[in-house]
Amino acid sequence: MEAVVDRAIEVVPGIEVGIATNGFSTRHTLKRLMTLASYFNFEIKAFDGTVHEALTGAPVEPVLRNAESVATKNPEKIRVFRTVVVPGITDAQVPKIAEFIKDIDPVIPYRLIGFRPSYILYYHPGPSKRLMQRLVKTCKDIGLKNVDFSGYYPINAPMKADDTGADAAQVAATYLQLAGCPTNPRNCGSCTLKDRCKATLMEPWLVK
Question: Structural domains in the chain?
Answer without folding.
Answer: 2-153 (3.20.20.70), 155-208 (no CATH)
